Amino acid sequence: MALDDGDALWYWNGNVSRTKNIPQAEWFGTSAPHDYDDHGWEISNFVVYAGEVAEGQPHMKGGKGSFSWLNNNPGNITAGGPAYGAFPGKVNWHNFLIFPSWDLGYDAIRQLLRGPGYAHLSILAAFQRYAPASDGNDPVRYANKVAAAVGRDVHTIVGDLTDDEMVEMQNAITDMEGAVAGWTYLRDDPALPQAVRDAIWS
After folding, report:
1. Mind listing the pLDDT tens digit for each residue in 23-33?
2. What angle do CA 99, 39, 187 make, to 5 degrees?
3. Which domain of life is it from (predicted)?
4. For 59-74, what is the mean pLDDT?
5. CB count, 10 Å around CB of 28?
6. Could you tell me the residue ranges of all domains in the chain?
7. Which string of b and e fits 144-160 if b means at least 16 CB within 10 Å?
8. How many CB atoms sit inside 10 A of residue 23's CB?
9. Percent of the chain at pLDDT above 70?
10. Which residues contact 154 (CB under 8 A, 6 or more apart)?
11. Gap between the Cα atoms of 96 and 159, Å rounded
């Protein structure tokens, strides 16, 4: 079955998998998190779009092609709530939504922050929810950055921000989530691994 726009797959050594997670047990006989039997840099994640295919190695520290970039999802928004314009039913590792374009993914951050989960929170509380310190983030730094950029206090309610001010929140979240570019190809590019091309066109 040919891949559709928004489909993602994992590739390693001539093998492809449509599973959400890297099939460690099948490919390497391992089960511990991030144990790829020293093959981590040989694994890639691909996402298919209408005019191109994106490749990255988001599972590797320092790898090119972060999930936010691969999925056109600068806020790393996950499934379970509104789709905000993402491909229906399409998710990548960690349940990250996949968007048809970067602009749609960027606007999804605004929609999320204007929604009932965040609109009533202060700038500081919003960052504490979105990127808690318990996950290794620094929500205070990002809240201070946004507040300074818009000339407001960190206790300003997110729902009271103007659209221009909201852009500063969107930019801070994009920066925080760390979009790192990977590689892009045409769908029939001979530089794509044969197994990936076969999956796209079969």
Report:
1. 999 999 999 98
2. 35
3. Bacteria
4. 96
5. 17
6. 1-65+180-201
7. ebbbeebebebebebee
8. 15
9. 100
10. 122, 123, 124, 140, 143, 144, 146, 147
11. 25
* Mean pLDDT in residue range 104-125: 97
Burial of 46 (0-12, 13-18, 19+ CB in 10 A): buried
Comparing CA positions, the residue from 142, 158, 176 lying closest to residue 66 is 176
For residue 130, what are the contacts with CB-CB under 8 A and spacing of at least 6? 118, 139, 173
Place of tokens 């749609």: 104
The residues with which 10 forms a beta bridge, in sequence order, are 17, 45
pLDDT tier at 7, thresholds 50, 70, 90: very high
Q: Tokens for 201? A: 């066109």
Q: Which DSSP symbol is given to 94? A: G
Q: Is the pLDDT of residue 128 over 80?
A: yes
